[in-house]
Amino acid sequence: MSFIAWVYVVVVLSSAGLIVATVRGRRPENRIRLVDAPTHDVWEIAFLGGGPARVVDAAVAALHEDGRAAVGEPGVLTVLRNDPRDAVEAAVLNAAAATPGGALAEVRRRAMTDPAVQAIGDRLADRGLMRRPARGRPARVWAGSQMAGSVVLLLCALLLTVTGHLDTDPVEVPTVVVIVPAVVVALVVGGICRQSGGRRLTEPGRLALRAAQATHHPLAALNPAVPAALLVAIGSATLLTDEVLREQLAQARTAMAVNGASSSDGDSGWNDASDGPAWCGTSGGSSCGGSHHHGGGSSCGGSHHGGGSSCGGSHHGGSSCGSSCGGGSSCGGGGSSCGSSCGG
Q1: CB of 122 closer than 8 Å to CB of 129
Q2: How far apart are CA 41 and CA 324, in angstroms?
Q3: C-alpha distances in angstroms, 260 versus 253, 273, 291?
């Protein structure tokens, strides 16, 4: 069998296997019951819409709205009354207490990896509304390897063709030209499978999110009776009517991105993520950064597009990991599973 034939056989077999692996990785881990699909919990809605980052922003909005905390310039969260109503609010207040100066960006980073926030993703995954970070990881690695191998193959074929080691008959079409279609197919299939395999929301999860948004959106921001936390949960902090709070949360997201923990809100944000040990991020992929103040946590930094992420150890009993991936990255600790998409 000629070199060209081998190339096409390998590409076809690898692409077919990759498609099968991606489809299997996207299947829900558990059987989904219709009764489990709807959600009216504000933290679950926030997690479906934007991951741990959206949850923390919603909690900050709730604390700021009723005067238990104040958010102001230059990006500082001040605790006025340490009176959490649940574990998520406690995570934010604890993060604020552990952050010198109360820098909002650092508070967000710490709170995002708190076990109480991470556990929301686990509950949603148990009900089949989300896929765990490790779900589909082999397919994502496979896709990345196929894409990298295709580029290396093309470069090697080009080099050998130029030096005359691959083609000896000047009348024939150069081998590098003949294998270009195979390389293109391998890159396209790899790219699509890598992006698809990193999506966290299942179809029932997407429907549950849309149902929650449809209940309040798009007029929710005009209704003063709608709590600030719910506004953030269904549509991100951009719906907040409090201009100071809205701007400070936006600046905190920007600060995290500049410091290597990129962020994105929205359903598009869960597309891909690094293969770390925890839920971290939004639906399209972003990463948590900073250190964690609870045992079992970790800290991560990463890029949003085509970058990599590296996770450093946490303060106590944390883990460390490093990974690179296209289409976003995320990491985090908090005792569940490390993985992908973190959000800012």
Answers
A1: no
A2: 33
A3: 11, 14, 13
pLDDT along the chain (344 residues), means of 10: 83 92 73 59 93 94 95 92 95 94 93 93 88 78 91 87 66 77 92 78 86 74 80 89 91 78 40 49 42 36 36 37 36 36 42
At 116, the amino acid letter reads A
Q: What is the pLDDT of residue 45?
A: 93
Assessment of whether the complete model's pTM goes beyond 0.90: no
Query: Of 276, 320, 283, nearest to 55 (Cα)?
Result: 283
**CA atoms within 13 Å, Cβ hemisphere of 120:** 29
Strands in the chain per DSSP E: 69-72, 76-79, 298-302, 308-313, 321-324
- 103 bridge partner residues: 76
Residue pair 234/226 in contact by the 8 Å Cβ criterion: no
3-state DSSP of the chain: CCHHHHHHHHHHHHHHHHHHHHHHHCCCCCCCCHHHCCCCCHHHHHHHHHHHHHHHHHHHHHHHHCCCEEEECCCEEEECCCCCCCHHHHHHHHHHHCCHHHEHHHHHHHHHCCHHHHHHHHHHHHCCCECCCCCCHHHHHHHHHHHHHHHHHHHHHHHHHHHCCCCCCCCCCCHHHHCHHHHHHHHHHHHHHHHHHCCCECHHHHHHHHHHHHHHCCCHHHCCCCCHHHHHHHHCHHHCCCHHHHHHHHHHHHHHHHCCECCCCCHHHHECCCCCCCCCCCCECCCCCCCCCCECCEEEEECCCCCEEEEEECCECCCCEEEECCCCCCCCCCCCCCCCCCCC
Q: Report the pLDDT value the prediction gives residue 109, as an integer from 0 to 100.
A: 92
- Of residues 257, 260, 291, 279, the one with CA closest to residue 336: 279
Find all residues with CB under 8 Å of 159, minimum gap 6, and list them: none
Distance CA 135, CA 129 (A): 13
Q: Which sequence spans correspond to the domains of the chain?
A: 3-29+137-197
